[in-house]
Amino acid sequence: MLPAILRPFIVSLAPLLIALCLTAISSAPLRAESFAEVTRLARGQTVYFNAWGGSPSINAYIGWAGEQLKQRYGITLVHVKLTDTSEAVSRILAEKVAGKSSGGSVDLIWVNGENFASLKRDGLLRADDWAFGLPSFAYTDSKTLPAILSDFAVPTDGQESPWGRAQLVFAYDSRYAETPPRSAAALAKWIGANPGRFSYPQPPDFTGTSFLKQIALELAPDRSVFMMPAETADKDAALGPLWQWLETVHPDLWRGGTSYPANYTDMVQLLGDGELSFAMAFNPAEFSNGIASGVLPETVRSYIHQGGTLANVHFVAIPFNASASEAARVTADFLLSPEAQLRKARADIWGDPTVLAMHRLPQDMQKAFTRVVRGPATLSEAELGRTLPEPHPSWVAVIEEGWNRRFLLR
Amino acid sequence: MAIMMKKQGMSLLLAKGARFLLFGLIAGPVIAGTLGIIVPAFGWFPPLGGVAFSLAPIQAVLDAPGIWQSVWLSLSTALLATGLSYFCVMMFLAVMWQRGGVRWLVRALAPLLSVPHITIAVGLLFLLQPSGWIARLISPALSGWERPPIFGIVPDDYGIALIFGLMVKEIPFLLLMALSGLNQLPAHQWIATSRSLGYGPVSSWCLIVQPNLAPRLLLAVLIVLIFCVSVVDMALILAPTTPPPLSLRVLSWFQDPDLSARFTASAGALFHVILAGVTVCLWLVLRRLCGIILRSVVRFGIRFQLLNISSRPLCFLGVMLVALPCAIGALGLGVSLVWSVAEVWRFPDTLPARWGLSAWSAGSVSLWDAAINTIVVGVSSAAIALCMVIVWCELTPAAYIKGQRKKITEIPFYIPLLVPQIAFLFGLQIMLVWLDLDGLYITLIWAHLLFVFPYVLLSLGPAWRRWDNRLDDVGAALGAGRIERLIRIKLPVLITPIMTSLAIGFAVSAALYLPTIFVGGGRIITLTTEAVTLASGAGRQNLGAATALQMALPLLIFLCADAVSRRRLSGTGSA
After folding, report:
1. Closest by alpha carbon to A396, among A213, A218, A243?
2. Are A357 and A139 in contact (CB under 8 A)?
3. Does CATH number 3.40.190.10 belong to domain A2-8+32-164+313-375?
4. What share of chain B is helix, strand, coil (3-state, %, to 5)?
5. B63-81: per-residue pLDDT in tens?
6. What is the pTM of this model?
7. Which of A149, B78, B203, B329 has its CA 20 to 30 A from that of A92?
């Protein structure tokens, strides 16, 4: 078995040598190819788009994008539905380990934060700042939205293309909670008074971990430590208030904290059935969508904490060994186009806010964006104004590890 | 005489060759894949920077919070699910086998046998969770619940829901295996004899028939035990998560975005193999203990007269042990069907407030893709497995398999079912990627074959080996060659078991989750992978639609198989 383990290592060196030779021969940089050329090459390719598949409305939107790409560019888009993005990360890794430097199984991946940091660190992404070269990237402005260049404090370096904006938003059923608790302290008080009706998705679920980060940021005496890598910080001091908060509310959580909702869509269903009085999501329009589809009763409303809530940008990235890298770039460009972004922002479609800068858009598009209808349970842009920056991605592992140590055994 | 010896030698050689080939095809990948995790489990995996052997990965597994609770959960649910399933089947047969009607029940259980594990799990969830259908049925009128009650059932803290879910699937399987084993025993005579000695029907069964049946069932029981200890898809829905069973923890290490967790995952997988071994040993010890107790009961002539006083309630109890879990499982399937055509259905409505087919139209593209993939992979792997089993059985006459001189053993073919899936699939995945074979249809069919082949062999093998050679002799006397005899006599006569095992093969393939995601590279989705994805919250309506298709497809194949064999049988009858 040892040689079988060794061989991929040796095999992986061969393409590297070939690539070195090739770059020596043709010094023409990749950037020289025009996007029109990329679009021409993309025709007929199939893009395997690895994206979390747990939300019917997002799945339907990706289905629409696939139809458009087929019609306009002759690209077939296949949505590989993931239960967790790390599945795709692990697959790309398996391919790298086996020395598969082209013909990979993932062409485009929906990613941000910790997963991006991990992919970038291990060199698993296409790294020629392709994202900055997309025609639609001209509609963005990193001055008004710096997060499109820095994903959880990690520079994107053009290895991923922005897709949408997200902010942690809470929802409550007004039948069960008259005035929502708008801070960590108020929430703890409410949970103590109404045992069994609050919970959060179990880490390492993305939304669940984000909730913990939110509480940690709210309670921290000094937030700046979270902007630096966790290794350099005094972790116990930074996270102490979070653990204390959790210890206090834990006995009064849903099912006594012995089990948790699987993710935010699961929480939305539990809110709809009345098992929970609250839910949370990273999509401000999630709860209006829920009311529209009948999962949630019309008494549900959303709110955010007074001190602001976590906000971030989510991206699409292309693995280093994508089979259809041209079509993947065309897909990323289409997803960033004003037309696709406009549809995405509609509450009845997905309700995901755009990453485009209004002042860079043509007049008619600007108007169209102002006309986007917000649902009954969606906050206005002004109400969403208060945001908290994401901590450095290294904190995720620290928080998850600490949570596992304290709360996995109940 | 010498010619005959030579001919026998030839056929033995041929059989050994076939076994070698099959071994490479079926057991080879499992062994290679398992070896592929042992090396990284000790820290050596250069592509990830592990170039020195160390015990750190093992230490990381041992240091994981709650690891022993996870191990205990896996161990206890597996032993209890297997033990209770076995007990229920034996009690049922004890009271019912002599009365007849068993055949009819097995027919009724066939749908449950063919439905994937994940579908049963989803059905139980829809039925039993606090906002499930039973709570809806009694709310708010009877229970007074305006909101779902606050208690932790499905999933519960002890894995009871998981045990129950596993039982719903394993009881029909063990029942079928037991009936097939009973065909080879003179059980009716034994019972008659022991009853004439003053033992009741139940005692006769437990003391005489069961001990003789047990060795024949051992393989099936061990397959069930290993499946239960390493189950992933059903556990994702029904098992507790604080902490989850070992299989899920190993899977989450394999899927951790921090790539150094891969060492821990490999060590965890190795740990899981050891756990499976320990579970089997425990089972064998318990089995031996039960045997000793039963034998001493016989030795002292204890006749348990009490058990015979009122045989009607006893009979009822025996039937209920099998019928109740199966009925609850079936009811859950019914609720999933209702969800698939529901539009708005919130607690505490007993039936949907608004009906509709949106689940079938919105996510339908991928649903139909998944259905087609399920059919293609399932039918091809079942058909290939069937051909392989027939060729194998033809090459190895019963004499080599049975009897005192065991020249050929079939145990290696069951290795894929006797090693936890999670233990060899990552190693296998790396190997397939390296050979550039991952994500292809043909590879996925082969990976499914690893699991389909043993089940087809298990179901068709005994029927094939019972073949009456005199029919062959008649054919030979009429001048038919070996191939002609096979096609014109053997296949038509054995059409019913052949079609049944084809349908079982399909059902096995349709239910596979881990092999499909590891080998299919995520590109080939089946209804089972789709259902697991949807079960993580993407709308109960969509999940209902996926599970409805999961029920329909295997049932359709079963009905087709049944129709074909009936047609063939009636056709030969009239000719």
Report:
1. A213
2. yes
3. yes
4. 75, 0, 20
5. 999 999 999 999 999 999 9
6. 0.88
7. A149
